[in-house]
Structure of NADH:ubiquinone reductase (non-electrogenic):
Amino acid sequence: MNGLSLFKRASRAFDDYPSLAKLIVVCTVSGGGYVAYADANSSNGAHAVAPPVSEIRKKKVVVIGTGWAGTSFLKKLNNPSYDVQVISPRNYFAFTPLLPSVTCGTVEARSIVEPIRSIVKKKSVSVSYCEAECFKIDAENKKVYCRPNPDSSMNGKEEFAVDYDYLVIAMGARPNTFNTPGVVEHCNFLKEVEDAQRIRRSVIDSFERASLPTLSDEERKRILHFVVVGGGPTGVEFAAELHDFVNDDLVKLYPAAKDFVQITILEAADHILNMFDKRITDFAEKKFHRDGIDVKLGSMVVKVSDKEISTKVRGNGGEITAIPYGMVVWSTGIGTHPVIRSFMQQIGQTNRRALATDEWLRVEGCNSIYALGDCATINQRKVMEDIAAIFKKADKDNSGTLTVKEFQEVIDDICERYPQVELYLKNKKMRDIADLLKMAKGDVAKEAIELNIEEFKKALSEVDSQMKNLPATAQVAAQQGTYLANCFNRMEEAEKNPEGPIRFREEGRHRFRPFRYKHLGQFAPLGGEQTAAQLPGDWVSIGHSSQWLWYSVYASKLVSWRTRALVITDWTRRFVFGRDSSRI
């Protein structure tokens, strides 16, 4: 009774004196508890009830795409204050570095895919998936317009709109045909799982057709001529996989076809694997020559028909040569999706190959839209654009000159905001920023260096020459997805306690540190159980040992234990039984 009387008195006090806001009294009576609550904002002194957590409106995040960038974002997002809607025409994530292996049966297609619903089902964040393609982005009204997957029974006729608070565009890119006539009609691409399966069927079909008794030797030679356009990592790896498939498996089943098979790589540049170390490039070209793979450098494709591919060789007087072929795989880089190109025109980003974002992956001119992966490129701000603001921020005593000590106080923020400064110092083998300032001042002691604005501009005038665009690789996309998810996880905290560099043109600090890509190395499988590896620190390894490193790294990067087990099983099956040549 005493506990109940105390509760009544406390309740009456909250009604009579609402200024006792936010005060919570907990009275324990025989193990039970009573709670009294009053809110000063209540106009009549009535009890105000806090809304349940479930009723608090969550921010709607729409993610377009289930590739490397989108899936990495979904995997790392763990802030339950978001309601996430995923939109993609494919309901799975594909481990694309193994697509060349799928083309020849080294790995099965089912082994490298993971359903997107399986990836997100155990997350604390509310995530829903919709199998549809986005065909329009309306940034002004914060809507994306979608239609069902064209492969579904609705035939894409039931269009619908999805609202968002934040939009994450991660839909990747499409193959770049350079508007070459006949490419779309007659060539195979290697961007999706379906592409790899189609190529695999085409290879088997070519050998079956070449085995028909009614064909001439000339026709057999044409049918078994496999042409790869593009000497980048994908084209080179496919050519190597195809060579192993033919020589290890198919010639045993089709012995009469052995003398007719030819594999050709057409590369417009001077070398294949241009993005790799020269040692790897040289080794790859020599190995392919030994293996009988014909590498034609300086060859630009101008037209593709149903039976011939026309090339123009640089330095050959513009003469066009027609090459008979049986199958062509086109692997020459990436282009922009129509929906992205339309969106770029809408926001004034014309004449660009990809969406321009700032260093925080936010689309320029759109505060609530982020873009990552192959569909976007970071537009790194130049130091010389902000040179006056940097000088003013560093010159704390407003003396009109800058000392080494003053500059050192902001150098960490400068290097974080403008990574090209650090790269420039490293490439010029300068120990610290004092060496850079000394270049502009001449033979002056470090402690006595003082620069005016013009001398400061001179010191940093060449820094922006170190700016480079990031490569369109799975590694970059995955790191961007992880970075953006971490930003979303700490969004509220960073609003209160910014952790980024100084805002040189404004007051305060940026909410987050800018995205920084960390290169972890790259592989180029060259066939015959040999792989070229280029790892950080200018470390190059070529041979069988690198192949086993490739196996271990790729197995560890697969998205689930299920796919790891399946891929390792496929590799083991191939070692024991060879590749499957059935046309399924």
Remarks:
- Residues 249 and 316 are 38 Å apart (CA to CA).
